[in-house]
TrEMBL record:
The chain holds residues 1 to 700 of 887 of the full protein. This is Molybdopterin-dependent oxidoreductase. Its cofactor is Mo-bis(molybdopterin guanine dinucleotide); [4Fe-4S] cluster. Keywords: 4Fe-4S, Iron, Iron-sulfur, Metal-binding, Molybdenum, Nitrate assimilation, Oxidoreductase. Belongs to the prokaryotic molybdopterin-containing oxidoreductase family. NasA/NapA/NarB subfamily. The keyword Iron-sulfur applies.
């Protein structure tokens, strides 16, 4: 039998365990790990096809400077020298890192340490900003910390499971299958889907509410008001464990039920069915994803949901609580080590002077960033207007995925110095790199990731490095040393980075911070190599699976007084459609592709599901525009234009269209949908509104 290596899927935030076995013929067999608590052996189509995506075609195999192959020493020196020179001439805020939920926690840790603790700027942000920044901001406002209170088991234990802005069937398929199994076992379990679009997830829903785009605040404020009106409030929980209930309730009651119906596009009877079900059921989980987060009111949506759970004390209990599910494999790990421009390492906060002091003393660093850095959209604006003169992009493709993507492309074209670390040689973004650095891919790299239920799992190497590719953490550490930071970056391996990160979570942490995995600070390289998936919280100083893994059933919030904050939420202004651009553009995933398809497009099996870009359009709209099914159509607005196939469907309502996010100029000319997306962001989280731009559609 070949070696069987336990590792973790590199795709979605479910974080499934995988057993990979390289075969003598060079292929790799992939199966689900039956012992991993996220998936118990199950895998979805993407995970099970991973073995088909491991060839070297298209890989970046050696460093390049201005398109010419180089060696590591030379390339790293150029990066370090250029960053140093830029900082010397223009200050630390003239440089930036833009990283990714695809990199490992160890990579994130070193990048964050270099930028915030040694360069002294907080200009490090991540494509996770596009994924879950609104959840982070909402959790912090309510709980005083970025803590997801529940665990996956709660989704199976709930009597009512509400899925908001989440196509779980396609985007988190193994979790979806766990829910299907739970419902088959307990058919009385009710599932509600809240989504403007009738996605595949509607197939298991008892109730689908086709809400108007971005009307979630109104819907959940209406629920809060209903809970109060119908005596479903838990006064003991509110009195003992929360602040600001009355203000939040007052704002929730600003709209009466007719106004809620009008804003949400739902009938009074649909609202009543949903509200009565929620109010009358103790075990309710409200799971939310990108339809909530990717919005100009994303943080308010998150808090409108959390308000309802706080008001009923339905939080941190088996089968009850708000639940944010992340899109990427390591968005959570990135959050944990402070990979966002407004966070510090180990869930400490950049704006908190005590936290800054703790982090700086732990690192023994010469300086510490003392103000938030630029969030993703602002960061590329700063590249465009010349404030940022050197940027290092790692494991992500912003020219295809940022809002107003063509403006991002122009900004990078004009930027004096662009470094891109990637596994692929030719992406929309590597085209504009002065220096390209080859990174290890999945199966070659080694480290940890954290899934949506706070479970830390190992990604293990089972293949040799592709030619001279190197770990992302190593690249950062080598540049740090060459920039003159002689201490702080002498990590022998990923295990050494993990030990330092684990120690930092426990440093001067006397239960005042949620994240403490200090018990792992002294594990040996061998123990790290054998580390089983584990979940935090961990009992202080002990490695154990025996404590309750939920948070907040009996208060214990991480605010200054230990109480949760209700947040007063007002109905947001909606994005106005015009006669010129009368359609709301929704973007999202398809079942079998991942991000910009660098890996999944290698599998013919995956591409046979949906192989070309399309726009879903309602039958009435198609008829009015004289569009037949499968016609080639143009979707456009003032920012740009894409050419895709029209797909007539009742899944989208009239006045809305849906285009998948995956297709880039490398995959299919003229299908890069994010060039149409307005650079509109949530004012609190900075997360872009990727689902509410306005467009026109016409036959091509
Ligand atoms: Fe991978 Fe997500 Fe599929 Fe699990 S559900 S196999 S983590 S893509």
């Amino acid at each position: 039998m070949q070696d069987q290596i336990k590792t973790t899927c590199p795709y979605c935030g479910v974080g499934c365990g995988i057993i990979a076995a390289p075969q003598p013929d060079g292929s790799t067999s992939i199966k689900g790990d039956p012992e991993h608590p996220a998936n118990f052996g199950a895998l979805c189509s993407k995970g099970s096809a991973l073995g088909e995506t491991l060839d070297l075609e298209g890989r970046l195999l050696a460093p390049q400077i201005n398109g010419v192959a180089s060696d590591w020493d030379n390339a790293l020196n150029v990066v370090a020298d250029t960053f140093n020179k830029t900082i010397a001439e223009h200050g630390p805020d003239s440089v930036a890192f833009y990283v990714s939920g695809q990199i490992l926690t160890e990579d994130y840790y070193v990048a964050n340490k270099l930028m915030k603790g040694f360069i002294g700027s907080a200009n490090i942000d991540t494509n996770s900003r596009l994924c879950m920044a609104s959840s982070v901001a909402g959790h912090r406002r309510a709980f005083g910390s970025d803590t997801v209170p529940g665990i996956y088991e709660d989704l199976e234990l709930a009597d009512v499971l509400v899925l908001v802005g989440s196509n779980l069937a396609w985007c988190h398929p193994v979790l979806y299958q766990r829910i299907v199994a739970a419902k088959n076992k307990r058919p009385e379990m009710k599932i509600v889907l809240i989504d403007p679009r009738r996605t595949m997830t509607a197939d298991i829903a008892d109730l689908h509410l086709a809400i108007a785009p971005d009307a979630d605040v109104e819907l959940f404020n209406g629920l809060f008001s209903h809970l109060f009106q119908h005596g479903a409030i838990d006064h003991d929980y509110i009195n003992n464990y929360t602040n600001d209930f009355t203000d939040a309730l007052d704002s929730a009651r600003e709209l009466d039920s007719e106004a809620v119906a009008q804003r949400t596009g739902l009938s009074l009877s649909e609202l009543d069915v949903f509200y009565s079900l929620w109010a009358g059921t103790e075990k309710v989980v409200t799971l939310f994803s990108q339809g909530v987060n990717q919005s100009h009111s994303g943080t308010d949506k998150v808090n409108a949901i959390i308000n309802c759970h706080l008001a009923t004390g339905r939080i941190g209990k088996p089968g009850a609580g708000p639940f944010s599910i992340t899109g990427q494999p390591n968005a959570m790990g990135g959050r944990e080590v402070g990979g966002l421009a407004n966070m510090l390492a180990a869930h400490m906060e950049l704006e908190n002077p005590h936290h800054r002091d703790v982090v700086q003393r732990f690192w023994g660093s010469p300086k510490i960033a003392n103000k938030p850095g630029l969030k993703a959209v602002d960061m590329f604006d700063a590249v465009a207007d010349g404030r940022i003169k050197a940027i290092w992009i790692m494991a992500t493709n912003p020219v295809a995925t940022m809002p107003d993507a063509s403006a991002v492309e122009n900004a990078l074209k004009a930027c004096p110095f662009v470094v891109v670390s990637d596994i692929m040689s030719h992406t929309d973004t590597t085209r504009h790199a002065d220096v390209k650095l080859p990174s290890l891919g999945w199966g070659e790299k080694d480290g940890t990731v954290t899934n949506s239920e706070r479970r830390i799992s190992r990604q293990r190497a089972f293949l040799p490095a592709a030619s001279s590719a190197k770990a992302d953490w190593w690249q950062m550490a080598e540049v740090a040393k060459r920039m003159g930071f002689s201490s702080g970056f002498n990590f022998a391996n990923a295990a050494a980075v993990f030990r330092e990160y684990a120690a930092q979570t426990a440093f001067e942490n006397n239960g005042t911070r949620d994240l403490d995995i200090g018990a792992y600070a002294n594990i040996s390289d061998k123990e790290y190599s054998q580390l089983s998936a584990f979940q935090w919280p961990q009992a202080k100083g002990q490695i154990t699976e025996k404590i309750d893994k939920r948070f907040f059933a009996e208060g214990g919030f991480y605010t200054s007084d230990g109480k949760a904050n209700f947040v007063a939420i007002h109905a947001p202004k909606q994005v106005a459609k015009t006669a010129e651009y009368p359609f709301t553009l929704n973007t999202g995933r398809t079942r079998d592709q991942w991000h910009t398809m660098t890996r999944t497009a290698k599998s013919p099996r995956l591409s046979s599901h949906i192989g070309e870009p399309f726009v879903e359009i309602n039958g009435a709209d198609a008829a009015a525009l004289n569009i037949q099914n499968a016609d080639i159509v143009r979707v456009y607005n003032a920012r740009g234009s894409i050419i895709v196939r029209g797909l007539i469907t009742e899944r989208v309502k009239a006045g809305q269209v849906f285009v998948p996010m995956h297709f880039t100029d490398q995959i299919s000319a003229n299908a890069r949908v994010d060039q149409l997306v307005a650079p509109l962001t949530d004012p609190i989280s900075g997360q872009p509104a990727l689902k509410s731009s306005t467009v026109m559609v016409e036959r091509f």
